[in-house]
């Protein structure tokens, strides 16, 4: 599991999740994202699911928890590029009623020299 977190101007954070999201990896992913939210106080969190290869119910919990955290801070969450079956899970769970699900997050990102990349190598052993 690998999470690449980038901080963009105008208080936007992009968290690109790669690999599987299950009960073993979700805790580390949550921790990485929550730490960035605490440090940067974004108004927009984009969760990029384009390279998620598997997701169980832990992925729903991951999104719901970040949604709750961001709304408490006056922000919002956008989910980008989930695979078809993951999009269907989000629709069945009602997450699509709370967040936008988009195919191209680029229109929400403004890149300039202030963009900071925080690559977080998630150690699956941390989740045990």
State the order of secondary-structure elements, H for helix, E for strand.
Answer: EEHEHEHHEE
For the largest sheet, list the strands in their spatial order: 5-4-3-2-1-6
Largest sheet: 6 strands, mixed
Q: What global shape is seen? A: globular
How would you state the average pLDDT, rounded?
87
Radius of gyration: 13 Å
| Weakly predicted, low-confidence segments | 119-128
- Supply the number of helical segments: 4
Total DSSP E strands = 6
At the fold tier of CATH, the topology name is Transcription Regulator spoIIAA
Query: Quick one: CATH class?
Result: Alpha Beta
CATH superfamily caption: STAS domain
Q: What is the structural class?
A: alpha/beta
Helical proportion, percent range: 25-40%
Query: Which CATH architecture?
Result: 2-Layer Sandwich
Proportion of beta-strand residues: 25-35%
Distance between the termini: 14 Å
Number of domains: 1
What is the topology?
Blueprint: E1 2-8, E2 12-21, H1 26-40, E3 44-55, H2 57-72, E4 76-80, H3 84-93, H4 95-98, E5 100-102, E6 116-121
Parallel strand pairs: 2-3, 3-4, 4-5
Antiparallel strand pairs: 1-2, 1-6
Helix pairs in contact: 1-2
What would you note in describing this structure?
Strand 2, helix 1 and strand 3 form a beta-alpha-beta unit. This protein has one domain (2-127): Transcription Regulator spoIIAA (2-Layer Sandwich). With 128 residues, it is α/β, with parallel strands linked by helices. Helix 1 (26-40) packs parallel to helix 2. The longest helix has 16 residues, at 57-72. It contains 4 helices and 6 strands. The model is unreliable at 119-128 (pLDDT under 50). The chain has helices at residues 26-40, 57-72, 84-93, 95-98; strands spanning 2-8, 12-21, 44-55, 76-80, 100-102, 116-121. Strands 5-4-3-2-1-6 form a 6-stranded mixed beta sheet. The relative contact order is 0.24. It is 35% helix and 34% strand.
């Amino acid at each position: 599991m690998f999470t690449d977190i980038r901080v963009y101007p105008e208080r936007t954070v992009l968290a690109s999740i790669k690999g599987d999201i299950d009960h073993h990896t979700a805790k580390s992913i949550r921790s990485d994202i929550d730490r960035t939210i605490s440090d940067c106080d974004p108004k927009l969190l984009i969760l990029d699911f384009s390279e998620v290869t598997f997701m169980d119910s832990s992925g729903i919990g991951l999104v719901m928890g970040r949604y709750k955290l961001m709304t408490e801070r006056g922000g919002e969450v956008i989910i980008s590029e989930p695979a078809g079956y993951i999009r269907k899970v989000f629709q069945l769970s009602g997450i699509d009623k709370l967040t936008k699900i988009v195919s191209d997050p680029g229109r929400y990102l403004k890149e300039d020299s202030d963009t900071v990349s925080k690559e977080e190598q998630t150690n699956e052993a941390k989740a045990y």
